[in-house]
Amino acid sequence: MVWKSFTVPKKLSLTRFSILLMAAGMAASSANAQQSRITAEINEGQRLTLTGHVHPKARPENDLGRVSPSMELSYVTVELAPSASQQADLQTLLAQQQDPASPNYHRWLTPEQYAERFGASADDVNAIASWLQGHGLSIAATARGRNWIAVNGTAVQVEGAFQTEIHSYLVNGENHFANSTEPSVPNALGGVVKAIRGLHDFRMKPAYRAPHSPTGEAVKPDYTTGRGTHYLAPDDFATIYDISPLYTSGINGAGQSLVVAGQTAINLSDIETFHTTYNLPGQNPQQILVPGSKNPGISSSDLSEADLDLEWSSAVARNANIIYVYSSDVMTSVQYAIDNDLAPVMSVSYGSCELETPSSDASTFRSWAQYGNSMGITWLNASGDTGAADCDDAQNPGLSVDTPASVPEVTAVGGTEFQEGSGTYWSATNTSNAGSALSFIPETTWNDSAANAGPDAGGGGSSIYFTKPSWQTGPGVPLDNARDVPDVALAASNYHDGYLVYTAGSLQVFGGTSCPTPSFAGLISLLSQYLVSSGAQASSGVGNINPKLYSLAQTTSGIFHDVTTGNNIVTVPCPARSRTCVSAPVGYSAGVGYDQATGLGSVDGYKLVSGWSGGSSIPVTPKVSMTLLSNLNQLGEGDITFLIATATGADGATPTGSVQFLDGATSLGSATLIGSAGTATATLAVSGSQLPAGSGTITAVYEEVSASVTLKVQSTGSVSNGTPVIGGLTNAASFKQVYAPGMLLSVFGSQLAPSTVQASSVPLPSSMAGVAVTINNVVAPLLYVSPGLLNIQIPYEIPVNSQATLAVNNNGQVASLSFIVGSVAPGIFFDSTTGAPVPNESASRGQIITLYITGAGLLTPAVPTGGAPASGTALSALPVPVGGTTVTVAGVTAMLDFVGDTPGLVGVLQINYTVPTGISTGVQPVAVSVGGVSSATVNLTVTN
């Protein structure tokens, strides 16, 4: 985004910028608006029944009667259906996004683009929201994709809206609530409202097997014992599945994000201990409680699952940003993560058997998955831990598969078990990272049912809800016209050999398909990083990977380890005196090619990633990349050019040291790299008199990388447009003479630039129209240059409370000026004609409004000089000032609703605040304080 307001030379006005921005947004919205499908009046007396909503476990014999009318229901979601033409268009797009021959290949949508193309119209969403509110329900959230609305309310309000009754049920000793009859909506909403989710609380089951120790003792950090017992540490998994070469070549998840969905709060100390114990670089996961949902607190039945998922996703994607999204219902967490496009990979280790899942829920999960796929999200889901009899109860003891793993747009991860035979696959000692595996270990199907005296095997079989997708073909795929699961399978036995997990303050061993699911999700994050770093695609994400997996299995050898032995056959024991339960073994055997016990088999991680786009090997990625530019490509003997070398760390680390500058074999000197947040620059001023006449190549060298630029030197005189004159410096927002690192700075004078140029992209350029600026020899990025005004950013690297020297180089001629840089210098952007803050010049008491400042000083997390947060960055991840921030109106401290660095805008902090209710009306002074330093005031008109 270009901030053209900075072109005003004397008084800064953001009013025109704000108007233009809003007009552009409204024009785009109008051009792409969906046609409304709610055309009739919403008549409560004429209603349409929505089928498939009564939970199979909400049976009359379990019914305890109606719940209390005041019972609170959280995040009840009204699912909105696309029109038939929209759904057909979506199916076409999803196919094109996975077709390398299509111009839409891996071109992912944003939630807003999805809304404009496949969502309900804004009018329809508003109409449904108004109808819901008319029943007393409060809106908890509205999907950015305009495909659902979530509400909170009491049981009686929900019953009134959907004309059903919410009853209490006692099932297997547990109390639940659920709708006793199918819900309905007014006829006018038919075709738009397709399902209601959240009318029951039969939550999904975590897919892990309980901690196991062969000796019956607490597990100690001795992972290869004299008894031949082995447990999986992160380096073991990396060795067995050939992921280590990816780490060696720099593919470690850097720059990637991965969502883990859960339904409990966590204790960070366990995650930290896991990372420390195995020398992993992983940082603490970012935690997001779904806004508007119920906080579950610590759930003892879910905590181990959350710890396992977070630890093992980061054990594989070691430098990725792990985002933990949680609520009281894991599928609410999934819903939020997809709608906010939080990460290109999502791991879910929960499920319920299809026979005990309402069909409306299954359909809803598929809608979410398709929505996510369109944005490039890959959803990995555990296939279940009770073999082919996924329900594992007397009500449904026969064949069934797990959902949402059965959704075609979800990748189902099943289980295998190591089978060493007489081979030597483990070292007798451990490495410093606790690894002891020596190589890949042959596998069989995971089935520990005999040892566990009950179903204990990888889920698999045929879906009753979803037909076979076109891509699910190949040797072994059943001709059953059903979606078959799993798709892949990796080690899952907690007997042989379990995954080490820190949870509840101790080291424990786990198994189940919950273990390979986050691990495989970590591998997909590595794949996404490689595809971007190799130039195979422009942005992260691979969407629905299933079509590619089945294609690779038939076309590329060595990627999959075909598991051909074992089975997932289990027997669900029937309780005594049961009349309907039949206790009989059910399941599938592994075989050559695909099978419903292990899918396509396990994977060779290196070969999967390198072979994804047809490549045969992954080159080693340099630790640093570098560019070199000069602010002018032609100079005379009397001119000076700034040679600016920019080094970027491939692993996110900021390069340090010095850069050597050479003219052929002749040294021009060196400069120290200065930077932060992964990027650093080294600037050397070179006179034309130092260079021979004619064209020559200047090279910058740093460690193993180099970059070059060509300069043409005129033998005499100067080619500049005149010597610049600096008249003064001010804060670009307040126009006060106060300065801080990261601040936008206005430089006034004459002959500062030969012409007027505005920066067109972020990161900001180091040079425009032959003009470059440094502060203490550190490049100051340029927003705008003109003969009388420069707008630049003070580099974050400038030391605070010190004297700094600004140098302006206008095509070879240089002027300088010294000034003092403080730690913070907050200035509020305002309308020069009214003195009022922009974009909100007036507001009523109690209203939430916005203002923008610059000069907030250092931020956390750090932002590179000249850069800004990417569009779509989660609000909780946006950088904030290191010092505290306050806003006062008429001297009264206002409540802050949001503070954060503005995506797409350099050096600008956005603040949302509530106008205090106790102040007087009329023009009132507003000030912002950062780190105890206050800004100049601006004039807000308080209306009532």
How many helix segments? 15
Q: How much strand content do the residues show?
A: 25-35%
CATH class descriptor name of the largest domain: Alpha Beta
The secondary structure category is: alpha+beta
CATH H level, superfamily name of the largest domain? Peptidase S8/S53 domain
Largest sheet, strands/sense/barrel? 8 strands, mixed
Distance between the termini: 35 Å
Tally the structural domains: 4
Helix content: 10-25%
Radius of gyration using CA atoms only: 31 Å
**Any low-confidence stretches, pLDDT <50, length ≥5?**
1-32, 213-227
What is the fold named in CATH at topology level of the largest domain? Answer: Rossmann fold
Structure summary, number of beta strands: 59
- Gross CATH architecture of the largest domain: 3-Layer(aba) Sandwich
Average per-residue pLDDT, rounded, comes to: 89
Shape: globular
Could you outline the blueprint of secondary structure elements for this entry?
Elements: H1 15-31, E1 47-49, E2 63-66, E3 72-80, H2 84-97, H3 111-118, H4 122-134, E4 138-142, E5 148-154, H5 155-162, E6 166-171, E7 174-179, E8 184-186, E9 193-197, E10 205-206, H6 234-240, H7 244-248, E11 257-262, H8 268-277, E12 286-289, H9 300-316, E13 321-326, H10 330-339, E14 345-348, E15 350-353, H11 359-374, E16 378-382, E17 402-403, E18 411-418, E19 443-445, H12 449-452, E20 461-462, E21 484-485, E22 488-491, E23 499-503, E24 506-510, H13 516-533, H14 546-555, E25 560-561, E26 570-571, E27 585-586, E28 602-603, H15 605-611, E29 624-630, E30 634-635, E31 640-649, E32 658-663, E33 666-672, E34 674-676, E35 679-687, E36 694-702, E37 705-713, E38 725-731, E39 744-750, E40 757-758, E41 767-768, E42 771-775, E43 778-779, E44 782-785, E45 789-793, E46 802-810, E47 813-821, E48 827-828, E49 842-843, E50 848-854, E51 859-860, E52 880-881, E53 885-889, E54 892-893, E55 895-901, E56 909-914, E57 922-930, E58 933-934, E59 938-942
Helix pairs in contact: 8-9, 9-13, 13-15
